[in-house]
Amino acid sequence: MSGALRIAIMTDETGWHTSRLKKAFRARGAEARCVDLADCRIDTTWAPHGLAIPGFGHALPDAVFVRGIAGGTFEQVTMRLGILHALRECGVPVYNDARAIERSVDKSMTSLLLHRHGVPTPATWAGESAAFAQRVLMREAAAGRKVVMKPLFGSQGKGLRRLGANARGRLAPLPSLRAFSEVAYLQRYVEGGQPGFDWRVLVVGGRAVAAMRRVGGQGWIHNFAQGAACEPALLTDALAATAIRATEALGLDYAGVDLIPAHDDPASPLVLEVNGVAAWRGLQSVTKLDIAAALVDDLLDRKLADSRAPVALASGDAPR
């Protein structure tokens, strides 16, 4: 495919999502190749960029779509994110880039940025002190509230614990932080209706493009991966606006935003999480929108196009 755009899909596993993305890139005349970040390397003898990306020889991709970053040691994950940082420094558009992914993967930073940007989200506490976390739990329980304890890094509803007084008013002690990598991330629990549900809204290029309700699942956890049923949802102005603001707060090109109705105002959604490497198989099952095509179009028509646009000089001289 001589002269075609060459795209790297960064992923540690191939399957349904990568197949959809490759098909969408082919429809746009672009050649997409799956690359594992663990196989990339920095090599300052590798001319001309000092970056070796498998399948691209001494050249770099025209753009990068980040579909997945494998877990590993702190050093391994830092190295993989470093490759994404290096690609951006070399002028390659990265969708979503490492800075944005770092903000969304770290739930404490997500909560802080949502709070600073005035995006409605449940009260949140995070720190390394078990004593402080226990005081938060006791204070919330005394007010008749529960909290959810989550792994700082995690997805698909795994490892969540709901804490608070039981029906007899007894408060169980805070779980050991050892299972949470010695970090306590606590979020005020928002009681849902019956049956319980939350929303997932997909934001692409600053627009909310699709929404669904995730109903049921593993008790009070409504993730698709935990058995929740996906239903079409009306993309209301409130849902769309809140999801867009959350995505902008983290600087993401696209995001899956998880929201839940506020207890005192069901029409006003609260943001629970913002996913910067979002899966969309469940959402695709309830929407006619070709999500992979929408993502690919935004990457090529906005992100890549903007990176290649001429830059006007501050003095008003002609663009270069």
Automatic annotation (TrEMBL):
<dbReference type="GO" id="GO:0016879">
    <property type="term" value="F:ligase activity, forming carbon-nitrogen bonds"/>
</dbReference>
<dbReference type="GO" id="GO:0005737">
    <property type="term" value="C:cytoplasm"/>
</dbReference>
<dbReference type="InterPro" id="IPR004666">
    <property type="entry name" value="Rp_bS6_RimK/Lys_biosynth_LsyX"/>
</dbReference>
<feature type="domain" description="ATP-grasp">
    <location>
        <begin position="111"/>
        <end position="300"/>
    </location>
</feature>
<dbReference type="InterPro" id="IPR041107">
    <property type="entry name" value="Rimk_N"/>
</dbReference>
<dbReference type="GO" id="GO:0046872">
    <property type="term" value="F:metal ion binding"/>
</dbReference>
<keyword id="KW-0067">ATP-binding</keyword>
<dbReference type="Pfam" id="PF18030">
    <property type="entry name" value="Rimk_N"/>
</dbReference>
<keyword id="KW-0460">Magnesium</keyword>
<keyword id="KW-0479">Metal-binding</keyword>
<dbReference type="GO" id="GO:0005524">
    <property type="term" value="F:ATP binding"/>
</dbReference>
<keyword id="KW-0464">Manganese</keyword>
<keyword id="KW-0547">Nucleotide-binding</keyword>
<protein>
    <submittedName>
        <fullName>Ribosomal protein S6 modification protein</fullName>
    </submittedName>
</protein>
<dbReference type="InterPro" id="IPR013651">
    <property type="entry name" value="ATP-grasp_RimK-type"/>
</dbReference>
<dbReference type="Pfam" id="PF08443">
    <property type="entry name" value="RimK"/>
</dbReference>
<dbReference type="InterPro" id="IPR011761">
    <property type="entry name" value="ATP-grasp"/>
</dbReference>
<keyword id="KW-0436">Ligase</keyword>
